[in-house]
């Protein structure tokens, strides 16, 4: 099971407006789309995914008066899975009386604009489903919002994929998109702290380097940086600048 989770703090989720209803298990997962227009520009801009998820949460909190975003997870084109309410919490998106039956996974596609789900979205949905089965006591069902509820959701394209059993797309998994360079050097000493440090540490950890993903760039991060730089054949100054940053995502894994 490989899942690339975007934790709530990573997308600057607002705090819930109350307590969640706990959920022991579900029959499975229901798949959703946004129902509105999704800007196709998000396919090449993960920051656009983050902004969209934040706006959906704001709509559910302030417009619908829900305790939180209605979805358990959100799947984006970059094969990443946003943590919504998460596991073992009752979602709100399936419709009255239908929430306890299934976790709710939103795909970032819409009824106009980005309509056809990119492969990364489909992979991310399957990642979320496997994660919910493994850790959230979700059963085998994969359904669409329109199953048992009068709605177009999740759109014809996603729904036909769901009906085919939600297979993973053929072909290689797309490489992760490089996040934009934070615009400052990550170095030690003194310790550099921030979400940009955490982003880099998480990527290095994904590449197999052993380091704490704690948002603090200290001696351990510097040593990992040096080792990586040597392996990449660039100056091993132990400082994450634009080149070292880009290589962390773009360089082939060995
Ligand atoms: Zn829906
Ligand atoms: Zn994304």
UniProtKB/TrEMBL annotation:
Short name of one Pfam family: PG_binding_1
UniProt xrefs under InterPro entries: Amidase/PGRP_sf, Amidase_domain, Peptidoglycan-bd-like, PGBD-like_sf, PGBDSf, PGRP, PGRP_domain_met/bac
Protein name, please? N-acetylmuramoyl-L-alanine amidase
Please give the residue ranges the record annotates as the region Disordered.
164-184
Taxonomy of the source species = Bacteria, Bacillati, Actinomycetota, Actinomycetes, Streptosporangiales
Q: MF terms per GO, please?
A: N-acetylmuramoyl-L-alanine amidase activity; zinc ion binding
Q: Which GO terms describe its biological process?
A: peptidoglycan catabolic process
**Entries under CDD domains matching the protein:** PGRP
Q: At the top level of its lineage, which domain of life is listed?
A: Bacteria
Q: Which family does it belong to?
A: Belongs to the N-acetylmuramoyl-L-alanine amidase 2 family.
SMART domains xrefs? PGRP (SM00701)
Instruction: Report domain Peptidoglycan recognition protein family positions.
Output: 3-149
Residue ranges annotated as compositionally biased, kind Pro residues, are 169-179
